């Protein structure tokens, strides 16, 4: 979503992120031990563990990881200046909720809210999570409609 907003700022009027995974693939790869990273580079594929895959892992080509490094955003200010709402579950064991805090800190927009759900996980699939998402969308639509009038 951030790359789309950077590429087409005139077309993007607001953003809502759910468990926003900015730089996540590269961050997870870089946290591996040096030996594991060397083995992945040699084999050309990373079997990244995931409880959401039937096999228990996703096969990620090493070339994808290397390309993803060129798209990392958290290393400098992120030139997005529209309203942003970031929803994140504090029990997310895939993308730490701190990532949403980092995004909020890095974007140049001053209209940024981070909403943390204490008992929600990565998928934020519970009824209360969906209600929060709908409310957040409605609230942004209201805000943008009053700006347009």
TrEMBL record:
Keywords: Hydrolase
SUPFAM superfamilies from the UniProt entry: alpha/beta-Hydrolases
GO terms, molecular function: hydrolase activity, hydrolyzing O-glycosyl compounds; palmitoyl-(protein) hydrolase activity; serine-type peptidase activity
GO BP annotation list: proteolysis
UniProt keyword annotation of Transferase present: no
One Gene Ontology CC term in the entry: mitochondrion
InterPro entries assigned to the protein according to its UniProt record, in alphabetical order: AB_hydrolase_fold, ABHD10_acyl-thioesterase
Domain of life: Eukaryota
Family: Belongs to the AB hydrolase superfamily.
Protein name: Mycophenolic acid acyl-glucuronide esterase, mitochondrial isoform X2
């Amino acid at each position: 979503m951030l790359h789309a907003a950077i590429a087409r700022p005139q077309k993007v009027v607001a953003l809502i992120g759910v468990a926003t995974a900015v730089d996540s693939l590269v961050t997870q790869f870089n946290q591996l031990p040096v030996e594991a990273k060397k083995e992945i580079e040699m084999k050309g594929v990373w079997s990244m563990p995931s409880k959401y895959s039937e096999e228990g892992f996703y096969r990620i080509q090493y070339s994808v990881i290397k390309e993803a490094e060129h798209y990392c955003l958290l290393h400098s200010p992120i030139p997005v200046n529209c309203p942003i709402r970031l929803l994140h579950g504090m029990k997310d064991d895939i993308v730490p909720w701190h990532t949403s805090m980092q995004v909020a800190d890095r974007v140049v927009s001053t209209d940024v809210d981070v909403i943390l759900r204490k008992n929600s996980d990565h998928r934020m699939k519970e009824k209360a999570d969906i209600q929060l998402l709908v409310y957040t969308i409605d609230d942004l639509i209201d805000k943008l409609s009053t700006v347009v009038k």
